[in-house]
């Protein structure tokens, strides 16, 4: 017997002719994500991912790391043994001893992927179930409402044995790299990291851009954005983070435009500059973290004014979510505690007291005409800092 790891993938199953390509991408992503932990062999057969030949000491770390990889729906440790009934029974009894030596309802589910195996799935389940029932007096067989489901999968290489309830849930989604790249406008807030995670989950590679107003926002605020990027990178591997100096633009807006338009015009600059960066670096869309009505700059009229300045698709995955739902997600992906650190974002420093809630494109364009938009953008783009952010 040896201990191994099995994982199941999700939506890839729906890809007919393309399935091998997605499976290969998923296997490559897993190998890449594990490369700092262990060398290993990753293969995919019949919608199951097998991780083998790894450093057994690291098994829990490997499972934990795999639970962050997009495309997998569950991960489990399993015993792998020879395909004969006496060995299967002995292995299940020994490998699962701690879990089965309890008072509980249980059943055995067997699956025979290797059709040359001489017994049917039902016969395997009945025989193994009977033996386990006898070996562990606390167990009561209950096929309808079991608390413990012992799985026995008979496959080409051998029999895999594990407990279904001990599977670790995966992220779901599609493997990173299966769709193109998009550029995330990453602030230090709660919303945009969640938006980035949601789009990355669909298999999209993520670049990030942050607008930074030194000295109005501190180095700590920048560290916070880098930390948020590194948390997202746990799921996506490396992220390129572009830091764009924003102070000159904000000062020009403050000097030349009515205060009530300040946020809107700032947001328009962010969108235009991000689109330019995106085009330069092969991104096909922008990602932002708005949800309708959350603040004055997120009314439909405000979104219209902001989004009007770019041509590429703008992905706003939080658009219909309540703040509380976004917070729940931020907690579950691990960004929340960093997002609520108090360091100022560039926008909080320059927030108008009474922002325009029902702006019109032509009014904003008129107000914006007081600025040399192109020169301001050119200056900002000439001074972009690139930081390559890795998972912590
Ligand atoms: P968040 O929690 O993501 O900061 P928010 O509710 O504070 O969002 P806004 O400040 O209106 O919303 O910003 C809307 C979106 O614009 C953000 O979700 C983010 O995508 C982008 N954005 C805002 N500020 C910045 C910034 N300094 N750098 C990069 N993107 C930003
Ligand atoms: Mg914000």
Measure the end-to-end span.
35 Å
Instruction: Report the count of strand segments.
Output: 15
Give the low-pLDDT segments. none
- Count of discrete domains: 2
Helix proportion? 25-40%
Helical/strand content category: alpha/beta
What is the CATH fold-level name of the largest domain?
A: Rossmann fold
CATH top level assignment of the largest domain: Alpha Beta
Mean pLDDT: 95
The largest β sheet comes out as: 9 strands, mixed
Shape: elongated
Tell me the Rg in angstroms: 27 Å
Structural account:
The protein has 392 residues and is of the alpha/beta class. The protein folds into two domains: 2-169, VC0802-like, CATH 3.30.2130.30; 181-389, HUPs (Rossmann fold, 3-Layer(aba) Sandwich). Helices cover 40% and strands 22% of the residues. The chain has 15 helices and 15 strands. The chain has helices spanning 19-34, 59-66, 85-95, 97-100, 121-135, 191-200, 219-236, 247-256, 262-280, 300-307, 323-333, 336-339, 346-349, 361-368, 373-381; strands at residues 2-9, 41-45, 48-52, 72-81, 104-112, 139-141, 148-154, 159-163, 168-169, 181-185, 205-212, 239-245, 283-287, 314-315, 385-389. The strands form two sheets. Strands 1, 2, 3, 4, 5, 6, 7, 8 and 9 form a nine-stranded mixed β-sheet that branches. Helix 7 (219-236) links the parallel strand 11 (205-212) and strand 12 (239-245). Helix 3 (85-95) crosses helix 5. It starts with a strand and ends with a strand. Magnesium ion is lined by residues 187, 189, 345, 347.
